């Protein structure tokens, strides 16, 4: 069972539009509404794969009630933490060429009591969990050390932690030795404080995160593929994508695929890439089912192309 923690969940509305003309009326050709937040998306991807999952998240107001209702409709068990503020609502505009414009609300400010309640709920629900996936930004009211405290408590209880966050929250949590961290290229560059122009730059940055405390690093490099760096070595994997419809939740689907396949080693990396490649070809934040996956299309190697320039270099 994979337990997910989403400190700042959302109600996500995605509209498919022919293009964006500022100041004009834009008519959508398609729309969907999904429960959102990185941890929520991981739970949705795990459930779509037919595996058990439990989502722990703070919920408030009518949007929070709708998030819980949508998750229940997808067969996902929810352990809600009631909060006084309203759960945020986000909007995404997807264009035919794959361009995605996102408008993310800040979310409610959690009180000290609500922050502690969220931590204690994770502890109470974590018995029997194979992994705890802690994902996304921290809402107002939670200190950057909140994830570090969660990792410490989870490890004390014998649980394994996968962490997908960025900035000060990631750096603070590294010293508590999370079992897996999953940055994208931009987050990886931010963590080490320098640009990434090649695959080799990304490998070096991932190694530095391990030196700072991460047990393993699963790094998403966008269209270039994904890296896995751990104590036993490094691997690089990629898969072809015919048409990008939306990248919302693709990284979360990758993390779900990684954890479903055991959360370690090249087999898990191949599963992560297959799930991510399938997700970007689906509308909105739809998560792939086993029928959407093409594991045979994944290319996996330990001979990493260090000098290959990234298609999307980051500064």
Task: Work out the number of β strands.
Answer: 16
Instruction: Provide mean pLDDT, rounded.
Output: 94
State the strand order across the main sheet: 5-4-1-8-9-10
**Helix percent band:** 25-40%
Per CATH, the superfamily is Ribokinase
Using the coordinates above, name the CATH class: Alpha Beta
Head-to-tail CA distance between termini: 37 Å
* Radius of gyration, whole Å: 18 Å
Helix-strand category = alpha/beta
Number of domains: 1
EC number: 2.7.1.56
Keywords: Transferase
Organism: Streptomyces citrinus
Enzyme class: transferase
Describe the protein.
Helix 2 links the parallel strand 4 and strand 5. By secondary structure, the chain is α/β, with parallel strands linked by helices. The protein contains 9 helices and 16 strands. It has one domain: Ribokinase (UDP-N-acetylmuramoyl-L-alanine:D-glutamate ligase).
Features:
315 residues; alpha/beta; UDP-N-acetylmuramoyl-L-alanine:D-glutamate ligase; 6-stranded parallel sheet; 4-stranded mixed sheet; 9 helices; 33% helix
